[in-house]
Amino acid sequence: MAKRLTLIFLIASHLFVSGVTSNNLTIENKCDYTVWPGILTSIGSLSTSTSGFALKKGESRAIHAPSLWSGQIWGRTLCSINSTGKFSCATGDCNSGEIECSGRDSNSPRSLVELSIDGHNINSYRVSVVDGYNFPLQVVPQRTFKSERCTDVSCDVVDLNQLACPYELMVVDEEERPIACTNPCRISNCYTSSSYTQIFKNACPTARVDNGDNNYFACPSSTDYFITFCPSLTPIPTR
User: Where in the chain are disulfide-linked cysteines found (predicted)?
Assistant: First the structure.
């Protein structure tokens, strides 16, 4: 019996030391409306095959990530299905025609989380509004095995849609209500700050706002990530 317990301990220790661990990505929706997260994987694969789903107000979903994964996570808003069964969203749409993005990226203004998990080294993460902004979000890393805290990153200082987005960058719905703010860097690559990018920087001081910013926040491996939509603000009404 003692030999069996020793063997189990050695196997578990080997798996831990060799980096065969995983990270949980928990996506929580605190917005006053339903948000449809979209996920685009560039390296590795998630335990859940879905690349898009719905989260009602107050709901959350934990996704098991492997020790090596890289991708993007964002939220889609004001989504619906038309008479032919095509699924689409007013912001963050990935143009797949279905609730799952299935490897399709979005060319719509959206607040974005970029995350790279490396179980053997350092994880990197950031919030980006280079494509634009559709609602506030926050990334909170939580170490699994150690007590040190990593940096929280967010974009929720100011509601860009309602308070700070210039009219010429504003995206509105059928009732002329602002639902997103376009970053000019999405259309033409910009590598230096401008009056427009400064507006995004004021609202999202820790986020990437232009193409010249290639910095990431770093956190040791074996970290869980909590991604919250509307951590403190709920900027757009439901349709």
Answer: 31-230, 79-89, 94-101, 150-219, 155-204, 165-181, 185-190
Q: Does a structural domain hold residue 218?
A: yes
Tokens of 79: 């989504």
- Is residue 172 within 8 A of residue 235, CB to CB? The reply is no
For the ranges 92-106, 157-171, 174-188, 189-203, the lowest mean pLDDT is seen at: 189-203
Using CA atoms, how far apart are residues 13 and 29, in angstroms rounded to an integer?
36
Token pair belonging to 204: 């999202």
Domain count, the chain: 1
CB count within 10 Å of CB 133 equals 32
Q: Is residue 11 part of a domain?
A: no
The rounded percent of the chain whose pLDDT value lies above 90 is 52
Cβ proximity of 134 and 150 under 8 Å: no
DSSP-derived pairing of the beta strands 122-128 and 217-220? antiparallel
Helices (H) and strands (E) in the chain — how many of each?
2, 13
Strands 87-91, 112-118: pairing is unpaired
CA 127 remoteness from chain centre: 7
Q: How many CA atoms lie within 13 A of 134 on its CB side?
A: 27
- Is residue 12 one of the residues assigned to a domain? no
Amino acid letter, 69: W
Three-state DSSP at 65 gives strand
